[in-house]
Amino acid sequence: MTYEWPLFFCLFLALWSAIVAGNFSAFSEFIMSALKKTEPAGGIEAMQHINREVIKTQFVAGILSITVFSVLFALYSLAVFEGAALITLTLASLVYVPSVFLMTMLGNVPMNNRLDSVDHTSVEAQNYWMEYGAKWTRLNHCRSLGSTLTSGLYIIAAITLITSGQV
Fold first, then answer.
1. pLDDT tens-digit profile of 25-71?
2. Which of 120, 122, 153, 165 would be a feasible disulfide site paired with 44, CB 3.0-4.6 Å?
3. Which residues, 6+ apart, have CB-to-CB distance to 23 below 8 Å?
């Protein structure tokens, strides 16, 4: 008996990972660049508002749900799949969790919290803004790459599940 839900779940996770990657990429490539070109107080204030708003969005729900779903799907895969399908499904989780979830929680979020705690017009904020912009963007590039790789791995897993007859 074949079950097609793993195939559709791979495609769902690939799509969500690609959407997350696109958001990260947009932020790294032109939003942060534009914010860093404004007067520091304006860039800081805008980023503070963005960080307060983003936590209420489907984007953050996607980041968190992909983490949970990819780990659970990898564990399920250990018991059900074999060969290249098992490897790619496991790798997808092993790429996503550290490069997106952990980097977000241990890197970008603490930086966002620190930025939120300063008065955007203060000298302290302006000094931190230069460090923040460079480091935050580097971390965000990594998150974008991790999400993109994860999406590709789920696409490869879907293809492998089909070609190996496991779905």
1. 999 999 999 999 999 999 999 999 999 999 999 999 999 999 999 99
2. 120
3. 59
Burial degree of 45 (CB within 10 A; 0-12, 13-18, 19+) = middle
User: Token pair of 135, please?
Assistant: 């480091």
The amino acid present at 32, given as its one-letter code, is M
- d(CA 46, CA 54) in angstroms, rounded, equals 12
CB atoms within 10 A of CB 55: 11
Residues contacting 13, CB < 8 A, separation 6+ = 66, 69, 70, 73, 92, 150, 151, 154
Q: From CA 77, how far away is CA 90, in angstroms rounded? A: 8
Whole-prediction pTM = 0.92
Q: What is the pLDDT of residues 59-98, one digit of tens each?
A: 999 999 999 999 999 999 999 999 999 999 999 999 999 9
